[in-house]
Design goal:
This protein is an alpha+beta fold and 260 residues long. It has two domains: 109 residues, TATA-Binding Protein (2-Layer Sandwich); 139 residues. It has six helices and ten strands, in the order ββαββββαββββαααα.
Length: 260
Amino acid sequence: MNLHKVVSYQAADFIDVKNLRPIISGNLLYKDASEVFYEMAAGQYLYIFRYGVVSFFDYGPDEITSFFGVLQPYCRNFLTHDFNDELVVETDAPENKISHNKIELKDFNAEVLRMIMLNVSQSVTLDYYSDQTEKLLEETNSYTQLLARRGRLIIAGRELKKFIGKTLLLKNRIAENLYIFDSPPETWENEQLDKLHNELKKSFDLQDRFRDVSEGLQIVKDNLELFKDILQYRTSTLLEWVVIILIAIEVINFFLGKIF
């Protein structure tokens, strides 16, 4: 029985994988436009995702800290390491078994490990997106409560547009970066890999957590649409009053001209 550990961090909003790749001295096992997977020295593995997640296999805390020092210049909005998740990996087990924070494997290879690290990383980024969604919901609720208490919306048109932009940007990032419902291509012709991937998704509760984030963003979007309609109505009413006042001034000027 051999125990190992996978730990994944949401290190940033974005990692420049393309320019980072030349400085990593490891055996590149997999690459595409959004992710790279390396076999490093001493049986360590490193998985880096464009959407800001880095996953480590058998790295010590000091080694992880050292790597983040190398990584930071290639990140957009480098984060403190509040968002992380880990999984203990037991190799040479009598049978395959997945529990809440541990996976036991009878057969272990780089493809199996990559699938494990992918799912741990998806779990981390879901935590991060969930946190961002909660913040948007709290901000939206503050305006909704003001609307309920005062009967009017206290938000400027430009501020509302920025708010809508943040929400749409988050929705697009989630749609682009999460593979919750679609299995990776590697699993299509490998039944065991596909089974492992599906079991890991269940273990990390990825689909339900993804739905919670999606539903939260939909609530934010619906509220913002309502706010936009209220602002448009307010602007339309203001323009109507401006037109009425201008017509009244013209009428008054007309009668004053007739009298004098």
